[in-house]
Design brief:
Blueprint: E1 6-9, E2 30-34, H1 37-45, E3 54-58, H2 62-68, E4 72-75, H3 82-91, H4 116-123, E5 128-132, H5 137-146, E6 151-155, H6 164-178
Parallel strand pairs: 1-4, 1-5, 5-6
Antiparallel strand pairs: 2-3
Length: 179
C-alpha cells in the first residue's frame, strides 16, 4: 500500500484567519483565547508586562474536514508543538507530527519563503501539499525543480482561512496523484 501524501499545514492564515483593523471574525469561526508560552515570551520581549492570551479564530468544521482528506496531516507552523497543545483539541484533531524548524524567519539566498527548503526536506521524496498564506510563485517553481515527487502549493487568503474550494482542491489533487 502506498503512503498517503503529506499535508503540510500552516496555522496563522489558513486555520486561524487574521485581518487588520477593524477586527472582524469571519463567518462560522469561533473566538478562542490561547495562553501560548511562545506568545507570552514574544510579548514580554516586546515590553508587555502582563500579556493577555492570544486571540485565535478557529472554524469548528475544519478539524473534521481535515481528517476526511486523504492525507497524513503535519503541522508546518511556527506554533510547532504548541499546535497540538492548544489548537488540535479545539479543532477536534489528534496529536499530529510537526516540523521542528531549525530556524524560523531567516532570509533565503534565492528569495524563497523561509519554510520552503525545510518542507521539501521534511517530505523526504514523498508527495505533499503545502497550505499556507505566504506561498509565492517562486516557492512553487523551486519545489517543482527540487522535489522528486508531486507537490501542491495552496495559498490561502489570510483574511478568510480555508474555504470549501480549498478542501475541494486538496481532495482533487490527492485523487489525481493516486491514479
Amino acid at each position: 500500500m502506498t503512503a498517503r501524501p503529506l499535508l503540510m499545514l500552516d496555522v496563522d492564515g489558513p486555520l486561524a484567519p487574521y485581518v487588520g483593523s477593524p477586527y472582524r471574525r469571519p463567518e462560522g469561526y469561533l473566538t478562542h483565547r490561547v495562553d501560548s508560552r511562545t506568545w507570552r515570551e514574544r510579548q514580554r520581549a516586546a515590553g508587555v508586562r502582563n500579556p493577555k492570551p492570544l486571540r485565535v479564530w478557529l472554524h469548528p468544521g475544519h478539524g473534521p474536514a481535515l481528517l476526511a482528506l486523504p492525507y497524513e496531516l503535519v503541522w508546518a507552523t511556527t506554533w510547532k508543538d504548541e499546535a497540538n497543545e492548544h489548537l488540535a483539541p479545539l479543532l477536534g484533531l489528534p496529536e499530529l507530527p510537526y516540523v521542528d524548524w531549525p530556524s524560523m524567519h531567516q532570509g533565503d539566498p534565492d528569495g524563497l519563503h523561509w519554510k520552503t527548503r525545510h518542507l521539501v526536506a521534511q517530505a523526504a521524496g514523498r508527495p505533499f501539499a503545502w497550505v499556507d498564506d505566504e506561498i509565492e510563485p517562486r516557492d512553487t517553481e523551486w519545489i517543482a525543480a527540487h522535489h522528486p515527487a508531486p507537490a501542491l502549493t495552496l495559498t490561502v487568503d489570510h483574511r478568510y482561512g480555508l474555504r470549501p474550494a480549498d478542501f475541494a482542491a486538496l481532495t482533487y489533487w490527492a485523487g489525481r496523484i493516486e491514479s
